[in-house]
């Protein structure tokens, strides 16, 4: 594969990820409950108590989508797009060890809180409530 074709494919990928993030990330943020960052741990516990086959199917689907968003978010740190917000949404989707600590750290950052609530206000949704509102992390 020539370098020109590779650069064209990378440019196309960048454009698709950028446009996709402009649509998917705000939509996902708008679907989250205002108290998500405080109460979602209870939902995770309940999800793990479901039938093992259903729990596995949900785990696979959430982690697959989350992994795609995580890769896109990391790429957007270097390409155009909403990198940090996409990474935060990806972590919210996934069930991985250390998720709570990382999510608490990211959602405790006042700049990320402001970005999330700006998107919520644009959609006419209630702002998120955070355990440690406006704490830089």
Architecture overview:
The chain contains six helices and no strands. Helices cover 73% and strands 0% of the residues. The chain is globular and about 50 Å long. Helix 1 crosses helix 3 and helix 3 packs antiparallel against helix 4.
Topology:
Elements: H1 3-31, H2 36-48, H3 52-76, H4 83-93, H5 99-107, H6 110-122
Helix pairs in contact: 1-3, 3-4
Short précis:
This protein has 137 residues and is mainly alpha-helical. Helices cover 73% and strands 0% of the residues.
Output the keywords.
mainly alpha; 137 residues; 0% strand
User: What string, H for helix and E for strand, traces the elements in order?
Assistant: HHHHHH
State the total count of DSSP E strands: 0
* Oligomer state of the chains in this structure: single chain
Shape: globular
Please state the average pLDDT score. Answer: 83
Rg (CA only)? 16 Å
Share in β-strands: under 5%
CA(first)-CA(last) distance: 44 Å
Structural class: mainly alpha
């Amino acid at each position: 594969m020539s370098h020109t074709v590779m650069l064209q494919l990378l440019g196309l990928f960048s454009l698709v990820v950028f446009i996709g993030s402009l649509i998917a990330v705000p939509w996902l943020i708008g679907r989250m409950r205002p108290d998500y960052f405080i109460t979602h741990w209870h939902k995770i516990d309940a999800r793990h108590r479901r039938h093992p086959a259903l729990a596995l199917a949900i785990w696979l689907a959430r982690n697959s989508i989350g992994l795609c968003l995580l890769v896109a978010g990391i790429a957007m740190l270097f390409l155009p797009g909403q990198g940090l917000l996409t990474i935060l949404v990806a972590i919210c989707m996934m069930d991985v060890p250390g998720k709570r600590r990382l999510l608490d750290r990211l959602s405790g950052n006042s700049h990320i809180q402001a970005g999330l609530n700006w998107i919520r206000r644009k959609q006419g949704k209630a702002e998120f409530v955070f355990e440690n509102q406006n704490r830089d992390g």
